[in-house]
Design brief:
By secondary structure, the chain is α+β, with helices and mostly antiparallel strands. The protein has helices at 2-13, 96-101, 206-221, 269-274, 277-283, 295-312, 318-334, 341-346, 348-351, 354-375, 382-393, 402-413, 417-425, 435-441, 456-465, 476-484, and strands at residues 21-28, 35-41, 49-51, 61-62, 73-76, 79-82, 89-95, 108-111, 114-117, 125-126, 133-140, 146-148, 152-153, 162-164, 176-179, 183-188, 191-197, 233-238, 248-252, 258-263, 443-446, 449-452. It contains 16 helices and 22 strands.
Length: 489
């Protein structure tokens, strides 16, 4: 296992091979937003077959009749087959109006002069893409329109929006918006967030929303001094009156890290700042994509940090953050009903085991944080471990298992804390025992109230957890070099 993990990290930190052949797409959008016309231009290596990972997308695809001005393509068995040569182009189009009219909201929906769509609806990609071929997508938009996508934006010399596609699997979900809106670049330490707020009626306050996102992102940087990914897509979609400021949100990884917030635009800024959602979703970007069986890890770490980081940033009093954590742990205990943690994670929606999954994972994060600090006499922490992970392996374009990630964190910290916790809890049917951890923290939770002791050691430990890190993560490369030399267990 250690040797495999070292190889994994070395591959992750090695420079990516640069492709020497570019497949170019130009997407033309009319002001009516009822159709997309796509031109695909081949490089020197001819790609003969294109497909979409969405079976539904096939019924909205058609090939315009261009006569002899374009090399012929044909639709066969749900795929585009190209019959032209190198350095030539072909066309296809997508009927967005029909897709919207068919109530396929999973693929496309309209929103006040904009459309939201999965790229699989219109971005037909090589069925088998040569490793040395990269994809570049340019948009030809009506005046006053813009596009928000999760890919890396580079823009062309003519000012048109241009993106390069990352190496994440094409079947990973994403969301692309096109319409009348503006994308603001919000700088935070180590990153520039691409924040797009869609139009609504009544109109939403873009400065207020940007302030809310910036505050949450700044809180994330207190973990190891910078935001974990360089340029995430942040998409805010007004939904109208609801029972709360942010009824739901999600993080998607298709094409790059992206956070999407579906909000009640009639609520005041204070209500947005009071909810945990932005800190939770942005905390997901501290980790790579984790497979469903181990979603307790990704949801749990985000649930832990949604409170800790808000306290560090002054958004919550520290006592309130501890209260919220232990209230969550109690909900997790009450939601633990016999399934193992892996089973509860795998079937979370079917079982309704959200509290079990989220707060078991948060309890494991707290135990790991305290145990790392104890074993290292305060020299290591969960913050530092995740900082080292960011240095070696983020952004990541593949899915990880929980055991892979925890094994790697042990490698990076030269400890065994994470795999011990994984082996103890992944197949357990009980909520994690917080007794020893709570004792070290000087925390007593009775009758729904947290009581904090005045003991100096417990106070120092609680203070260290709720204080910003010094911004110096473990040096991942140095840890690997020591591993290679046999200096680490």
């Amino acid at each position: 296992m250690p040797g495999k993990l070292v190889l994994l990290i070395l591959l992750a930190i090695a420079p990516a091979a640069s492709g020497n052949d570019v497949l170019r797409y130009r997407v033309s959008v009319p002001e009516s937003l009822d159709q997309l016309s796509v031109e695909v231009c081949q490089g020197s290596r001819v790609i003969e077959e294109f497909s979409s990972h969405s079976a539904e997308a096939r019924q909205y695809l058609f090939v315009p009749d261009r006569g002899v001005t374009r090399p012929l393509v044909e639709l066969s068995h749900g795929r585009i087959r190209y019959k032209g040569g190198a350095e030539q182009c072909f066309d296809y189009a997508v009927d967005l109006a029909a897709a919207r009219g068919a109530d396929t909201s999973r693929l496309v929906r309209a929103q006040y002069g904009a459309i939201l769509m999965r790229s699989g609806l219109w971005l037909w990609r090589p069925t088998s893409q040569p490793a040395e071929t990269s994809i570049r997508v340019a948009f030809d938009l009506p005046e006053g329109h813009d596009v928000s996508a999760p890919w890396q934006r580079v823009d062309g010399s003519d000012g048109d929006p241009v993106y390069t596609i990352s190496g994440s699997p094409p079947d990973w979900p994403d969301l692309v918006a096109v319409g009348r809106f503006r994308t603001d670049m919000i700088p935070v330490a180590g990153a520039r967030l691409r924040v797009t707020v869609l139009g609504s009626e009544p109109a939403i306050s873009e400065p207020d929303i940007s302030s809310w996102i910036r505050e949450a992102a700044d809180a994330i940087t207190t973990l190891y001094g910078r935001f974990p990914v360089p340029s995430p897509q942040i998409l805010v979609v007004p939904q109208g009156p609801a029972g709360e400021a942010v009824p739901w949100a999600q993080v998607l990884r298709g094409g790059g890290a992206a956070a999407h917030f579906f909000v009640d635009q009639t609520r005041p800024l204070d209500e947005f700042r009071e909810v945990w959602t932005a800190a939770h979703e942005l905390s997901h970007m501290l980790l790579p994509y984790i497979l469903r069986d181990d979603s307790w890890l990704s949801e749990g770490f985000a649930s832990y940090y949604q409170n800790v980081l808000r306290a560090r940033a002054g958004m919550l009093p520290r006592e309130t953050a501890w209260q919220k954590l232990y209230d969550g742990f109690q909900r997790g205990r009450e939601g633990t009903r016999g399934a193992t943690l892996v089973e509860a994670s795998r079937d979370m929606r079917k079982r309704g085991s959200y509290m079990r999954v989220y707060w078991s994972g948060a309890a494991i994060a707290l135990i790991a944080d305290v145990e790392l600090r104890r074993r290292s006499q305060g020299q290591q922490s969960l913050d530092a471990a995740l900082g080292a992970l960011a240095e070696c392996c983020l952004p990541s374009d593949r899915a990880w298992t929980g055991s892979e990630l925890f094994g790697l964190l042990d490698e990076l910290t030269a400890q065994t804390v994470f795999m011990e916790l994984y082996e103890q809890h992944a197949e357990s049917r009980r909520f994690p025992d917080l007794g020893p951890t709570s004792k070290r923290l000087g925390i007593d939770y009775q009758s729904g109230r947290v009581r904090l002791s005045d003991g100096p050691e417990a106070y120092r430990l609680r203070d260290a957890i709720m204080s910003p890190a010094d911004g110096r993560p473990i040096d991942a490369r140095s840890a690997l070099e020591r591993q290679e030399l046999g200096d680490l267990d």
